[in-house]
């Protein structure tokens, strides 16, 4: 497991409702006094279906030295709690939780970084325009429009995390591209199995089919989209047509050699993309990520 002490982090369990408590791993950012420290945005990490705040644990130490960060567990995942109700894990409700958590933590300026399902949530939050966002980073993003799965594929997803063997197979052979010949971090499978039954079922049952596209075309903050060359879940072409094309001015980076879970396959590249993107509009006031050095 991750040594939070080495990350200079603290955990906080935030009660939003009696049956919804959101776990947050909080890093306070630069420890050296700086005139800009109080104005730095907080990076807020949102995980994929089957993950937790630990999904970002290889990236977070590389970014938290420069910016404050908050890695969240969605309701029903990781150490967060959620209702005992099958319809309580929609994309809209997950977005409500993130907005409420931002308010509870008194975050005045944020950059949302969402992975897969977390990126669908992030797009909805940005489209609503209620949260104090300065930027948006979408990593292997699920589109905001509905995706209707064939029944056999839907059944496979519903049972993908039924046991350790199936979860490990999915993680190594479908979601990542670099762990077939090296050990997968143990937290990956643990996270998949820890999700409560309604959270695990919600994405294939109805979350992936939820239409949250209203207002996405009006997103006005800088947007960086990171796709992965070997992603079989959200292929580069679909990311281009279903995500980038819907968000005016978004910039696309394609990570070579990475699968769907690039924070595990290529954490250094993800961190470099984030730091360069944030540096452009935090340090230089430029709302454009076109000069990134990562291949795109």
From TrEMBL:
Keywords: Hydrolase. GO terms for cellular component: membrane. Residues 43-272 form the AB hydrolase-1 domain. It comes from the Eukaryota. One of its GO terms (molecular function) is hydrolase activity. Pfam families: Abhydrolase_6. Transmembrane segments: none annotated. Gene3D superfamilies: alpha/beta hydrolase. This is Alpha/Beta hydrolase protein.
């Amino acid at each position: 497991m991750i040594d939070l002490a080495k990350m200079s982090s603290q955990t906080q369990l935030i009660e939003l409702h009696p049956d919804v408590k959101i776990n947050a791993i909080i890093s306070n950012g630069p420890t050296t006094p700086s005139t800009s420290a109080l104005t730095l945005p907080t990076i807020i990490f949102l995980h994929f279906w089957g993950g937790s705040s630990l999904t970002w644990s290889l990236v977070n130490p590389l970014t938290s030295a420069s910016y404050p960060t908050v890695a969240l567990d969605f309701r029903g995942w990781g150490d967060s709690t959620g209702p005992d109700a099958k319809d309580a894990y929609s994309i809209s409700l997950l977005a409500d939780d993130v907005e409420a958590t931002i308010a509870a933590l008194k975050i005045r300026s944020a950059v949302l970084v969402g992975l897969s399902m977390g990126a669908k949530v992030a797009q909805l939050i940005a489209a609503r325009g209620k949260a104090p966002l300065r930027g948006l980073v979408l990593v292997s993003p699920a589109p905001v429009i509905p995706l209707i799965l064939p029944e056999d594929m839907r059944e496979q997803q519903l049972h993908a995390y039924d046991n350790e063997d199936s979860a490990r197979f999915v993680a190594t052979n479908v979601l990542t591209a670099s762990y077939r010949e090296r050990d997968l971090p143990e937290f990956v499978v643990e996270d998949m199995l820890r999700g409560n039954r309604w959270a695990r079922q919600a994405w294939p049952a109805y979350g992936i089919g939820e239409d949250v596209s209203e207002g996405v075309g009006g997103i006005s903050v800088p947007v960086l989209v990171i796709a992965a060359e070997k992603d079989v879940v959200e292929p580069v072409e679909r990311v281009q047509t279903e995500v980038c094309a819907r968000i005016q001015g978004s910039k696309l980076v394609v990570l070579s050699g990475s699968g769907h879970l690039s924070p595990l396959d290529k954490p250094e590249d993800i961190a470099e993309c984030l730091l360069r993107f944030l540096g452009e509009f935090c340090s230089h006031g430029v709302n454009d990520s076109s000069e990134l050095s990562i291949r795109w």
